[in-house]
Amino acid sequence: MVSFGGLARKIFGSSNDRRVKSMRQRVQQITALEKNYEALTNEQLQAKTAEFRAALANGKTVDDLLPDAFATAREAAKRVLGMRPFDVQLIGGIVLHERGIAEMRTGEGKTLMATLPVYLNALEGKGVHVVTVNDYLAGRDAQTMAKLYNFLGLTVGVIGHGMDDDQRRASYGCDITYATNNELGFDYLRDNMKYERAQMVQRPHHYAIVDEVDSILIDEARTPLIISGPLEDRTDFYNLINNFIPQLSAEDFEVDEKAKTAIFTEVGTERMEQLLAEAGHLKGEGLYDIENVAIVHHLNNALRAHTLFQRDKDYIVNNDEIVIIDEFTGRMMPGRRYSEGLHQALEAKEAVKIQPENQTLASITFQNYFRMYTKLAGMTGTAATEAEEFGNIYGLEVVEIPTNLPVARIDDHDEVYRTVEEKYKAIVRDILEAHAKSQPVLVGTTSIEKSEMLAERLRKDGVKDFQVLNARYHEQEAFIIAQAGVPGAITIATNMAGRGTDIQLGGNLEMRVQRELADMPEGAEREQKIEAIKADIAVLKEKALAAGGLYVLATERHESRRIDNQLRGRSGRQGDPGRSKFFLSLQDDLMRIFGSDRMDGMLQKLGLKEDEAIVHPWINKALEKAQKKVEARNFEMRKNLLKYDDVMNDQRKVIFEQRLEMMDSEHLTDAVTEMRHEVIEDMVALRIPENAYAEKWDIAGLKEDVAKTLNLDLPVEEWAKEEGIAEEEFLNRIMEAADKAAADRAERFGEQIMTYVEKSVILQSLDNLWREHLVNLDHLRSVVGFRGYAQRDPLSEYKTESFELFQAMLGNLREVVTSQLMRVELVREAAAEPAPELPVMSGSHIDSSTGMNDFDPDAWAEHQEDERIIDPSSRDASDPRTWGRVSRNESCPCGSGKKYKHCHGAFD
Ligand code: ADP
Ligand code: MG
């Protein structure tokens, strides 16, 4: 019987097959060229790059060049890397060139596949970005593939976390740049805060290939990338608002515990308006005026802090600080803070020190960052389950690339236990069973905590020989995971840990050479040692094969099928045997979601005894259904985030474009004059409304505005006395006077200085106002959610009001710029001052799987270690993480007296 899902897959599969088939013909075309290219000398092969570039200059397109460029890259890979890209890699390369997502299984060689379209597109000289999930992978891939690119005459750069702007600019200037999504986004935002084009580091966004594209464009897209800087102290403000709340009575607000919302009623709103007005904090007419967005946001937070958050249940007060208690695990989370002022509201409530806030200086979602590329493509082992999202949001079509060799892995049905306890018992038993026959085991968990828990259990059962990975120290973990295919290895890893590193049965030659022969110079002895390692690996591989290959044992199902597939896919690479199995219990989160109560009863009825498992295809299907539901919900969440971000994105585009235009222009007088004129028009219209009787004119007000904004003392009141003076006469005279003052100033300053001054004033004012605007948008966004009771759609409300805020900001900008430029004076004939410094900034991007900040300095520990600059005296003997890179022959920093290679640096 064919299920509907299977049927759909058949249809999907067949159209996929047709696409792949059509590409096979083109691959044959490339393969047909192989003979010719093999006959070329190295010099002739290398000369192809210049030939292709000349062809492009003469009107050929990259599409025209594809067969020859791919053939060139293939031949070069054979010569320099000793690998001949398989036909399926060529197919994937074509998909990437044609803006698709190549779904290719783990271990099939995506890194090499990408070099083909990278080479082809880099010929255009506009820069190609290869995007990886972490710094370690960016460095590794750049380094291995640089051999190929350099051979073909192309330059390669890599962006590392600690780099300064000059290094970054140089790397972005290369034909090909390897970088993480975080660094790319961060540089983009920072670039758009700079004051001169020359300070910017990135070039326009031409072509990007995103590796592990599902992680970056789907998982990481759940949270935006934010750059922030410290904000001034607002302790008094928080305390003021905090004091309002205890003055409220029950009729003033409504609390919904379940939905975790607390809102003011109409009476409450009026009460707040009154209190704010008394304190002199109410702007405009009422609380829901757009000027009060920030205040409403803080009022809401204060109300929530008092009504929804309980001391010693949701948080504790410790050492003058609020420490969050995780609602699921019940653990304290020191250092974690609630967002956007809520934490400060709690601090005010508990009368502890109010910690300084950070202000968002700029932010972007990865969706919007990557949509800027003229051409975007991606690759991963798992994309098909999310094909709809890739299509909808990025316009990227997923193409499943067949494996080079048939997959020989056996995927067992899920094994379901009644309790977590029984499940873990079974897991440990299975691990030990596999271990006893030397089968390497990779145990996948859904969180670091669960990995640690399992490790603890194994230790209790006397197993010591295992490794735990938690996606924090990418370089070390890459080595560990690369060895996870050695017979008898037990590796416990979260889903994300060791991503991008291939698990080869028997171990990884390159990794071992790198580690074991680090200090050995090139030469015969080294070659000999390499041969010895090779032989060792071959023996180990045989043993691992005999034991059935890598056994992937998953301790839970993830909420997304894609992540489960990723885990499974780590076994059975390139036709190797392997096995995978998921262990579940009715107490797992996912099982609870789809009503395990009923199932529990059923299992009991069936007479399931303790420690017995049920295995049934029905369960797999039911789970898949539950996963699909969760996936759909998460997709909605991301779409929603994007809808809001799109509003800001449109505004950001306008601002950044304007900024660039200003930065580049050599002449700003026209723009400045236009701004000034608009300001004057608004000013006059306000004080002398059209068709109003002369008695209604606010002449004193006009005079004041002219003085304040234009820095001019004009006899406006005299003009008003003139018989029958027309309204536009005011406008004309003020404009004339202002233009003259501006012209005089320009004359005094000289054109060059004037332009410089105008530019600085505009850019700085724009930046300040834009940052304020971002904060307002943030606040607006949290506020619109609370207006639900008025039956309005929060998103459309947000759109309308953010547009109003944007307009207001532009009006403000014109005024600020005009007012400043009508006042500047040259103190001396000073040489142009250096451009203002950028504010202190830090990046943050919350990884939605770990909840940790990717930019957290801790997470970068391995890079600091990498620099070999650690002063040995600063090493902590008891903590190997503080040692940096230790030379193999050095005495071990732990103080044992043994050489490092025989102590902590020993390979077991
Ligand atoms: P993926 O990213 O698809 O999981 P990798 O790019 O890490 O896979 O490659 C896996 C392994 O396969 C690497 O060791 C790589 O050197 C090897 N490999 C890739 N392509 C080829 C090829 N055409 N011939 C031989 N080995 C290859
Ligand atoms: Mg890879």
From TrEMBL:
Residues 898-908 have a biased composition (Basic residues). Residues 23-50 form a coiled coil. Residues 864-908 are annotated as: Disordered. ATP binds at Q89, G107, E108, G109, K110, T111, D502. It is a peripheral membrane protein. Keywords: ATP-binding, Cell inner membrane, Cell membrane, Coiled coil, Cytoplasm, Membrane, Metal-binding, Nucleotide-binding, Protein transport, Translocase, Translocation, Transport, Zinc. It holds the Pfam family P-loop_SecA. Its cofactor is Zn(2+). Residues 5-615 form the SecA family profile domain. Residues 864-879 have a biased composition (Basic and acidic residues). It is found in: Cell membrane; Cytoplasm. It catalyses: ATP + H2O + cellular proteinSide 1 = ADP + phosphate + cellular proteinSide 2. Its EC number is 7.4.2.8. GO terms for cellular component: cell envelope Sec protein transport complex; cytosol; plasma membrane. InterPro entries: Helicase_ATP-bd, P-loop_NTPase, SEC_C_motif, SecA, SecA_CS, SecA_DEAD, SecA_motor_DEAD, SecA_preprotein_X-link_dom. Residues 91-249 form the Helicase ATP-binding domain. One of its GO terms (biological process) is protein import. PANTHER family: CHLOROPLAST PROTEIN-TRANSPORTING ATPASE, SECA INNER MEMBRANE COMPONENT OF SEC PROTEIN SECRETION SYSTEM. NCBIfam families: PRK12904.1, secA. Part of the Sec protein translocase complex. Interacts with the SecYEG preprotein conducting channel. Has a central role in coupling the hydrolysis of ATP to the transfer of proteins into and across the cell membrane, serving both as a receptor for the preprotein-SecB complex and as an ATP-driven molecular motor driving the stepwise translocation of polypeptide chains across the membrane. This is Protein translocase subunit SecA. It comes from Paenochrobactrum gallinarii.
